[in-house]
Amino acid sequence: MTHAYIVDALRTPTGRRKGGLAHVHAIDLGAAVLKPLVERNNIPAEDYDDVIFGCVDTIGSQAGNIARTSWLAAGLAMNVPGTTVDRQCGSSQQAVHFAAQAIMSGTQDVIAVGGVQTMTQIPISSAMLAGQPLGFSTPFAESKLWHARFGDAPVNQFYAAQRIAEHWGISRADMEVFALESHRRALAAAAEGRFDREIVAIEGLTFDETPRESSLAKMAELEPVDPTYPSITAAVSSSVCDASAAMLIVSERALKKYNLTPRARIHHVSVLGDDPIWHLRAPIPATIAALKKANLTLDDIDLVEINEAFASVVMAWLKETGYSHEKTNVNGGAIALGHPLGATGVRLMTGLLHELERTGGRYGLQTMCEGGGLANVTIIERL
C-alpha cells in the first residue's frame, strides 16, 4: 500500500469573535494559508491534484465551494480543482482522511488540505436560519421516521455535554478547573514560542487572541448557557473564533519527484458513528476501535489532541480510557485556543505534528466529537 505523508502544516492565529480577523472575508482567510503552503514547498502550483477543505455552514461568504475559491483567490493555478467537506466539527480532519485515502489508493500524489471558518460573520446558528438545523433545538422531531426511532429526545450539544458530565460524575467545578488549565497551558505555550513555527500572520495578527487570564472565582460567577443545563457555561465550552489551517499531503512518488522531506506518515484514519442523542460521546468508542484497527494501544501513543468542544467531553474520554491528561492537549485545547469548526481538525493536527517534533514523540492520536454522534480518529507517526 502507498503511504501518505505530511510535508507541511500551518495555520492562522485564532481570532476571537469580533476580533482581529472578524472583517476578513472567508475566502481570503482560506487563501491566507494556501498561498504560503504552496510558496514554501518545492511543488509547482499547477502540479497539485486537488484542494480539500473543511467548512461548516457553507452559506454567505463561506458558500460556493470555498476550497476552490480560496485557492483561486490566493493567485494559484486555475487547473487545480477543489472540494469542500462538511462532517460538522470534524470537517477538515475528514479532509485529511480523504486526501490520505486518495494517495493510499495511488490515484493522486499532491493534495492541499485544510479548513476555514469565520464564526464572527457566520455564527453557528446561521445554518438553522437557512433551513439547515444544527441541533440546537429539536427540528429532527419534524421527521416522522426520526421521531419513530428517537422520540422527543433533544439532538442538542448542550444537552449532550450536560448528560456526559452527569454520567461520568463530572461536576461544574471539576470542569472549571479543567478549563482554567486549558488557558494556562495555551498562555504558557505562547510565551515559550511553541506556536511560532505553525502560525502564519494575517492582517497583522501574529498570535492567538482567544486564550485569556481567568480564575475559578470568575468562572463560578457565570450563568449557564441555558438553565436546563446548569453545569454548562461559556467558561467550560470551546471559544468562538475565526481561523484557517492547511497541510500538504503527498505520496512517496511525490517525495522523490520534488525532493521533499516528510515530517510524518499518516498511520491510521477512521470514523465511527454513535448514538446521536449522546451527540458528543463518540470519541470514546472511536478511539477504542481505531487503536484495534491500527494494532496499537494507548501506551504506544505519545501525545493526544482531542477537541475541547466542552470540558466534559475530554474529561469523560480521559476517565474512560485512562490516558494521561499530562499528554493530552498539552498546549491547551479549544476552550482556550478556539474551535473554528471547519478548520479545527487541521488546526489540531498542525499543533500535534509540531509538538511531536518538539518533544521527539513518535505517535500522535487525534479525535473529536462531531454533530450527529460522529468521531474521526487520525494517528500520525513522526518521521
TrEMBL record:
Q: Name one Pfam family in it.
A: Thiolase_N
User: What residue stretches are annotated with the Thiolase N-terminal domain?
Assistant: 5-252
Q: Does the keyword Zinc-finger apply?
A: no
Q: Does the keyword Acyltransferase apply?
A: yes
**EC number in record:** 2.3.1.9
PROSITE patterns tied to this protein = THIOLASE_2
Q: Name one GO molecular function term.
A: acetyl-CoA C-acetyltransferase activity
Which residues carry out catalysis? C89, H339, C369
Start and end residues of each Thiolase C-terminal domain:
261-382
Keywords from the UniProt entry = Acyltransferase, Transferase
| NCBIfam families the UniProt entry points to | AcCoA-C-Actrans (TIGR01930), PRK07801.1 (NF005865)
Q: Which family does it belong to?
A: Belongs to the thiolase-like superfamily. Thiolase family.
Protein name as annotated: Acetyl-CoA C-acetyltransferase
**Organism per entry:** Pseudoalteromonas translucida (strain TAC 125)
Phylogenetic lineage? Bacteria, Pseudomonadati, Pseudomonadota, Gammaproteobacteria, Alteromonadales
